[in-house]
């Protein structure tokens, strides 16, 4: 078995990292199968809300693999001959089950390349490409196909596997799910250049408060039952803000503040609320132009022990 990456190492303190994309998830999975893995456990499911592309990819690839499970549990056939610009960056495996043929080919190169695979034995005149609704011709016992960077193609004699749920549709759905995280007009979304700091942090998830995900990873403070706590959003340029929405399950009382040298302590309160019970609160106020917005937390709900903020949204009005 293998545990491929389905999370972002950047969330674990490694700078300059990201989550794998759909193509990379599929690449990892089929590299494992080519090399005789018969079990895959993507790690980890709890990141799926923050990275919906991962959720779509893992589900699609998992169902795709299940449709070919007879091939996965079959001993690979010998005799493949591979030609490519970078043949050392090609992972391939041929599986035969009765009269059904499956050929897994994975491009591990960091560039696109054309790959030719010559197969042993007697072959049909064409092979279907799984989940791609197309076929490739078999000429002199070989197939030739174009592979984008990290692309995976699976060839089979089983025609219905070519027309199963389509890879292109799944990738489009994954991209749409990612795009849906950003609500129209939300200037606190992560692509605005905003940075987030906090009074303390249990896991270092401050930036998860501006990733659009209303479930999943969230910021929580590390000074249990000790208040006040605060979370501060800072932009590189002034923003006009007149409405803020905060998603929290533990905070009862808070103040919304902007930096102001003339105010006591350097912060001016522009809105506040108390006795929160709902999972979100919307604060509206006279529009302000600011580079810094602070959520100042003074009371928790019931027996809550930490300040938790799932998401912060900011709008001009």
CATH superfamily of the largest domain: Golgi alpha-mannosidase II
What is the CATH architecture assignment of the largest domain? Sandwich
CATH class identity of the largest domain: Mainly Beta
- Computed Rg: 26 Å
General form: elongated
CATH topological fold name of the largest domain:
Immunoglobulin-like
Q: Please give the number of β-strands.
A: 16
Order of helices and strands: HHHEEEEEEEEHEEEEEEEE
Indicate the low-confidence ranges by residue numbers: none
Short description:
This protein has 317 residues and is mainly β.
Which keywords apply here?
317 residues; mainly beta; Immunoglobulin-like; Jelly Rolls; 2 domains; 6-stranded antiparallel sheet; 5-stranded antiparallel sheet; elongated
Written account of the structure:
This protein is mainly β. It has two domains: 1-180, Sandwich (Immunoglobulin-like), CATH 2.60.40; 190-315, Jelly Rolls (Sandwich), CATH 2.60.120.260. It is built from four helices and 16 strands. The protein has helices at 22-34, 52-66, 69-72, 167-179; strands at residues 81-84, 90-97, 100-107, 113-118, 126-129, 134-137, 142-147, 152-156, 195-198, 219-220, 229-247, 251-259, 267-273, 280-300, 308-309, 311-315. Strands 9, 11, 12, 13, 14 and 16 form a six-stranded antiparallel sheet that branches. The mean pLDDT is 97.
């Amino acid at each position: 078995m293998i545990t491929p990456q389905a999370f972002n190492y950047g969330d674990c303190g490694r700078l300059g990292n990201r989550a794998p994309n759909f193509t990379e998830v599929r690449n990892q999975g089929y590299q494992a199968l080519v090399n005789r893995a018969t079990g895959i456990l993507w790690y980890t499911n709890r990141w799926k809300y923050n990275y919906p592309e991962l959720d779509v990819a893992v589900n699609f690839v998992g169902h795709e693999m299940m449709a070919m499970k007879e091939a996965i549990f079959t001993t690979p056939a010998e005799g493949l001959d591979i030609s490519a610009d970078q043949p050392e960056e090609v992972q391939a495996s041929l599986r035969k089950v009765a009269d059904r043929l499956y050929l897994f080919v994975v491009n591990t190169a960091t560039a696109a390349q054309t790959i030719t695979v010559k197969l042993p034995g007697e072959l049909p005149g064409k092979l279907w490409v799984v989940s791609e609704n197309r076929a490739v011709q078999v000429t002199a016992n070989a197939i030739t196909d174009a592979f984008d960077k990290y692309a995976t193609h699976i060839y089979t004699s089983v025609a219905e596997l070519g027309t199963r749920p389509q890879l292109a549709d799944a990738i489009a759905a994954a991209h749409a799910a990612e795009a849906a995280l950003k609500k129209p007009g939300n200037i606190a979304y992560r692509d605005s250049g905003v940075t987030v700091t906090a009074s303390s942090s249990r896991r270092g998830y401050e930036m998860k408060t501006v990733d659009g995900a209303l479930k999943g990873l969230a910021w929580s403070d590390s000074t249990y039952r000790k208040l006040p706590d605060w979370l501060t959003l800072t932009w590189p340029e002034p923003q006009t803000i007149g409405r803020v929405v905060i998603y929290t399950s533990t905070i009862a009382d808070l103040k919304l503040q902007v930096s102001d040298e003339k105010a006591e302590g350097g912060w001016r309160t522009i809105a506040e609320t108390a006795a929160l019970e709902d999972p979100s609160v919307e604060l509206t106020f006279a529009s302000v132009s600011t580079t810094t917005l602070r959520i100042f937390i003074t009371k928790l709900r019931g027996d809550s022990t930490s300040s938790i903020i799932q998401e912060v949204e900011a709008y001009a009005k």
